[in-house]
Amino acid sequence: MQSTASSFHARAPINIKLIGLGGCGGNLVSTLKLQNDQVDLVVANTDLQDLAGRTTIPTRILLGPQQTAGKGAGGRPDVGAAATVESEPMLAKALSGADLVVIVAGMGGGTGTGAAPVVARLARQLGALTLAFVTMPFQVEKGQRSRIAEQGLASVSKEADAVVVVSNQKILNFVDPRTTLSVALTYSNTILAAAISGVIDQLSLPSLMQLDFSHVRQTLSQAGQTMLGIGSATGSDAAQRAMQLALKCDLLEGNLQKARRVFASIIGGSNLGLIDVHQAIEQIHRVVANEIDLVIGVATSPLASHRDRVRVTLIASEVASFRQSLSSGQANPKASVTHTISSNDLPPFLKLHRRGCL
Ligand SMILES: Nc1nc2c(ncn2[C@@H]2O[C@H](COP(=O)(O)OP(=O)(O)OP(=O)(O)O)[C@@H](O)[C@H]2O)c(=O)[nH]1
User: Fold this and answer.
1) Where is the Tubulin/FtsZ 2-layer sandwich domain (predicted)?
2) Ligand 1 pocket: which residues have CB below 6 Å?
3) The complex's ipTM?
4) What is the pTM of this model?
5) Does the CA dihedral 223-229-233-239 come out positive or negative?
6) Rg of the Cα trace of the chain?
7) Which of 10, 34, 312, 319 is 20 to 30 Å apart from 72, CA to CA?
8) Whole-angstrom distance, CA of residue 53 vs CA of residue 28
9) Which residue has the CA at smallest separation from atom 28 of ligand 1?
C-alpha cells in the first residue's frame, strides 16, 4: 500500500495572465479548463467578429482599430504587428502586474504571428516571465503560410523567455488518417491545453514540493525554444507511467539527454502516492544529464475527476543557463542564475524515503 501526502506548502499567490492572440489563441483560451479561476484571461484579435463571439472571456481587446477597422489582418503578420503596436496601451493595462504571462497563438496567419512577438516583448518589459505556446501549420497549409510561420516562430523566440511549439502536422501522426481537420484541431488543442494547464495549475494548486515561482522563473527565463513532453495515467503507479509517457512523448522534438534546463510538473489527486512520485522523479534523473537546472513541482488537485489520474508535463531547453555557461567557460550574459534540485529541495517525506525509511 502506498502512503499519501498530508502536508502542503503554502506559497505566495502569483499573478498569472493568459492571453490568446488571433483565431487560434482565442479558441484555446475559450476552451481551456483551468483549475484556478484567479488566472486572468485575455483575448486579442484584429477581427471584431471573432472577439464578439468570445463572450466568456472577461478581457477582449480589439487590436489596431485604426489600422484594421476590426476586419482582420488578412494573413499579413506586418499588419498584425502594427495593429498590436497601436493597441499597446490597452495590452499593457491588461498585462500589468503579472508575474507570469502565457501567450497562445497559431503561427501562419496575420494576427497571431504578428502580435505574439510584440506582446512577448511588452510582457517582459512589464517584468513578467513570458511563456509562449505556439502552433505550427499543417502541411496542407504549406507555401506562404509555412514561411510566415517559420519567421513568426523565430521572432517570438527572440522576445519570449520560453517558447513551446506544438506542430499541428505532427498531431496528424497520432490520429486516424481519415480524420477531419476539425477533429485534428481539437486533438491539437487538447495537447496544447494539457501543456498550458500543466504549467499554470502547477503554480496555483496546493504544492507538495517547495516549488516557488522564483525557481520556475530561473529555469525558464531565456530558455528559448523548448521541448515538450506530456503524459497522463491512472492507477496505483500512475505517476511513474505518466512520467514514462512524457519522457518518451512523440511530441518531444529534440533529445532530452541534451537538455540543460527542465521544468517538470506532476499533478495528481488527493491520493497521489509518495513512493510513486519519488520513482517518477528518479526516472527523470535517469534520462537527463547530471549537471542541469531541474525544477520539479508536485501538486494535488481537489477535483474528483483527478482522484486517480496523474498528469506530467515536461518543458526542457537545450540552452544552458548563466551558471552552467560560466562553468563550461561559455558565459551567456543574457541568461539567468540557476536552480539545481538537491535533496534540500525535496519535501520531508521524500527525504525519508530516500533514506529507506518509507
Ligand atoms: N491547434 C490549433 N491550430 C489552429 C487553430 N486555429 C488556427 N490554427 C492554426 O493557426 C494558424 C493561424 O490561424 P489563425 O490563428 O486563425 O490566424 P490569425 O492569427 O487569426 O490571423 P488572421 O486570420 O490572418 O488575422 C493556422 O494556419 C492553423 O495552422 C485551432 O483552433 N487550433
Assistant:
1) 209-328
2) 22-24, 27, 46-47, 72-75, 106, 108-112, 135, 137-138, 141, 145, 168, 185, 188-189
3) 0.99
4) 0.87
5) negative
6) 20
7) 34
8) 13
9) 137
